[in-house]
Write a structure and sequence with these properties.
The chain has 378 residues and is mainly α. The protein has 20 helices and no strands. α11 packs antiparallel against α12. The termini are far apart.
């Protein structure tokens, strides 16, 4: 027994190698988890998630409206979904099991949902009409997804022109260097185009804070001019809040979070202050809207149909954003087509010049050798 206790004491008193061996896999697992969370955060910021959010809100609204308890509905969504939707449902279910509200339970997923969606969920819980607010959120996310799909469709023609340019540009290499040289040139051009596209996508996805800081130094109209879809989303959110029974002051407060610049958010707060002082909403919106928008708001106030008025205004602004996007893409497409034609024409001219100059270079080299031979003979 004394020998056994001495051996046990020796094993427990010197576990340096074993403890180090045990700590090493744990450190590796911790590093892998941190890397995974960092990649997930980057994916949440870069990938378009409007469609996933729309399906989550729509499914949850349908389950709750059917009489399913909130926790059970989230468990059902978690069991029958994957990816972002499953992560949202799992976060909501675990928070509700701890006694939290739905907005507090989804707070850890603010990076995915955004502060506006969380505020709207909390407002739906406060007004007691969570189902209608979830439906409104699904409609808002569907509109965002529609805008994104429209942007991708508008990019189809410029991307096609660039791909054709990548295929046509190496044709002189086919004439001069053969098929292998042509294929190598095509692959190089396509890889360069893919790299530029990914760089532009990442820059657009990660430049939000930088763009907001730039907009803070510009007039308030700059954001509405550069991003007309934000004004449409502002009116869409305000209309959804009014339909859910919220006051116009709360609706303005939540809708103002759509804007990135501080000046536009200050204009929304000023509009809420004027309404609180007893002025009309059309007068309170002031510089935030165009003249025709203020006329529609005044008519909606008199008729008592503010929710419909805000819906019409949101559609008008989003359609204007769509028309502007199409015009910009048409101009870009024409410029790309002209650049591609000029590029191909210059490449063809250079190839013919090289074909014409190649025999002359050979003759001059041969004449140089002849002259050196004559000189050496002399």
């Amino acid at each position: 027994m004394a020998k056994y206790l001495a051996r046990q004491k020796a094993e427990t008193s010197s576990p340096d190698l074993s403890s180090a061996a045990q700590r090493r896999p744990e450190a590796i697992r911790t590093a892998v988890r941190r890397l995974g969370s960092a990649m997930a955060a980057l994916a949440d910021r870069v990938l378009p998630l409007a469609g996933a959010r729309q399906r989550f809100f729509h499914s949850l609204a349908r389950l709750v409206s059917a009489g399913v308890p909130l926790a059970d509905g989230l468990s059902t969504i978690e069991a029958n979904s994957s990816g972002v939707i499953r992560r949202l449902a799992a976060s909501g279910r675990s928070g509700i099991d701890k006694g939290l509200s739905l907005s507090d339970a989804l707070a850890p997923q603010e990076r995915v949902l955004g502060p506006v969606a969380l505020a709207l969920v909390g407002a739906g819980e406060q007004t007691g009409d969570l189902v209608s607010m979830l439906d409104e959120l699904a409609r808002i996310e569907e509109e965002k997804d529609t805008q994104l799909r429209g942007l991708l469709v508008s990019l189809a023609y410029p991307v096609t022109v660039l791909v054709l340019a990548c295929l046509i540009m190496p044709i002189p290499q086919l004439v001069l260097g053969g098929t292998r040289s042509y294929v190598s040139g095509v692959i190089t051009n396509l890889l360069l185009l893919a790299g530029v596209g990914l760089g532009a996508w990442f820059s657009a996805a990660l430049s939000g804070p930088v763009v907001d800081r730039v907009l803070d130094r510009l007039p308030a109209e700059a954001e509405r001019l550069l991003f007309p879809a934000r004004a449409g989303l502002f009116f869409l959110i305000v209309g959804a809040c009014v339909r859910s029974g919220m006051s116009i002051l709360q609706a303005l407060e939540l809708g103002g979070k759509v804007f990135g610049s501080t000046r536009n958010r200050d204009l929304v707060q000023e509009a809420a202050r004027r309404v609180r002082e007893g002025r009309s909403l059309a007068d309170g919106l002031g510089r935030l809207c165009r003249v025709e928008d203020r006329v529609l708001v005044a008519a909606g106030e008199q008729a008592g149909t503010m929710d419909k008025t805000f819906g019409d205004m949101s559609r008008a602004h989003l359609q204007r954003a769509t028309r502007r996007r199409k015009a910009v893409m048409a101009v870009v497409s024409v410029l790309l087509a002209l650049a591609m034609v000029g590029w191909v024409a210059s490449s063809v001219v250079r190839s013919y010049q090289r074909q014409i100059e190649a025999p002359m270079e050979g003759w001059s080299a041969e004449m140089g050798r002849e002259m050196r031979g004559i000189w050496n003979n002399r």
